[in-house]
Design brief:
The chain has 72 residues and is mainly α. It has one domain. The chain contains 2 helices and no strands. The longest helix has 35 residues, at 4-38. It is elongated and about 55 Å long. The protein starts with a helix and ends with a helix.
């Protein structure tokens, strides 16, 4: 069985990859929201912005968890 330290590193590494995915998704959604707004689809653009806010909130929580796990 892996040590607690090795498990913590693996968990933190996995969360870090998920965090990178969060950032990539937010960037993609932002591009779509900008395009939607420029093309007169404001309601859908507003929904995309709300989705980005959720991603940002969750990214903060994931970052906090990563920092706690990586503490010695």
């Amino acid at each position: 069985m892996p040590s607690s330290s090795a498990s913590n590193i693996a968990t933190a590494d996995a969360l870090t990859l998920l965090l990178h995915n969060q950032h990539a998704l937010a960037a993609a959604i932002e591009e779509v929201a900008i395009w939607l707004s420029a093309n007169g689809v404001e309601v859908v653009a507003d929904n995309a912005v709300m989705a980005m806010k959720t991603l940002d909130t969750n990214a903060k929580a994931i970052t906090d968890a990563i920092m706690r796990i990586r503490q010695p």
